[in-house]
Amino acid sequence: MILLHLSKHIASDFCKQVEHIPKETLIAKLKKHSFFNPSWSKEEIIEGVAEAYNFFKNKGLTGSHLYKFKGEHIKVFIKADGTLDTAFGSHLLNLDYFL
């Protein structure tokens, strides 16, 4: 389930949806949507998210936290029950990237 949500923040996966989204909707979505580093593989993204999640979970923390992985920030959200809610990178990509 979480991998499905993460794919919304993986540029190569999001790219597959672009042709099905009206241009105006896509522009609005990209303004408020960030991605993991587009040069990272899915394995690197999963590794970074797992590392970040485990770091904060082992400290007993919940809520929103930034974690530095490979020189970049990953934002993770941990639910009150300790489960991972979501995670995403800090790259803002524009329409030109996907066209």
Main attributes?
alpha+beta, three-stranded antiparallel sheet, 5 helices, 3 strands, 43% helix
Provide a descriptive summary of the structure in words.
The N and C termini lie far apart (28 Å). The protein has one domain. The chain has a three-stranded antiparallel β-sheet. The model has no long low-confidence stretch (mean pLDDT 92). The protein is α+β, with helices and mostly antiparallel strands and 99 residues long. It contains five helices and three strands, in the order H-H-H-H-E-E-E-H.
DSSP summary: helix tally: 5
Describe the strand arrangement of the main beta sheet, using strand numbers. 1-2-3
Question: Kindly state the mean pLDDT as a whole number?
Answer: 92
Rg on CA atoms, Å = 14 Å
- Total domain units: 1
Q: Tell me the structural class.
A: alpha+beta
The SSE string, one letter per element, is: HHHHEEEH
Strand content: 15-25%
Cα(first) to Cα(last) distance is 28 Å
Q: Give the overall shape, derived from the CA principal axes.
A: elongated
Helix content: 40-55%
Give the biggest sheet. Answer: 3 strands, antiparallel
SSE blueprint:
Blueprint: H1 2-6, H2 11-18, H3 23-31, H4 42-58, E1 63-69, E2 72-78, E3 84-88, H5 95-98
Antiparallel strand pairs: 1-2, 2-3
